[in-house]
Fold this sequence. Notes:
Layout: H1 2-31, H2 47-56, E1 63-64, E2 72-79, E3 85-91, E4 97-103, H3 107-114, E5 119-127, E6 130-136, E7 141-147, E8 150-156, H4 160-169, E9 170-171
Antiparallel strand pairs: 1-9, 2-3, 3-4, 4-8, 5-6, 6-7, 7-8
Amino acid sequence: MAGxxxxxxxxxxxxxxxxxxxxxxxxxxxxxxxxxxxxDLPRVDxxxxxxxxxxAASYPVVAPQGLxxxxxxxxxxxxADQFDAWHLGYHTPDGGYVQVQQSTEKPAEFIEQAxxxxxxxxxxxxxxxxxxxxxxxxxxxxxxxxxxxxxxVVAGTGSFGELTRMAKALRAE
Length: 173
């Protein structure tokens, strides 16, 4: 009989210990600050890279003009040794991502990479001074234009409205 009381006390102590642990974890979760939102991405200044790209590239390099401050540039790079590849990424006001990429690489390969495997549609539209073709995909949607010896891709998780807004803002000056 004494053995079963010891076992009962051990089980009871284990259950009580588990209950206290769960309760402590709940209190910690409630009172310790935590952020479930997206991280605050730093704004990048892309002016130097843009000037470098415009001097070095074999095509007119584009960048947006006139976007509101709520469009935050978050990434930039120019790789002259990789088909004059230009990249500029933005975090949109709605929490999406829109990027502008240009390259002299073979269009099929470049578009595959820049759109992350999106497929071409039959929809074309005139936005600004360019004709753009819509591409849709699982991860990114895109607008693609081929002019001046380069392919320009505006792609990302943003809506086609946001992609169009970016395409309208692009200038080569």
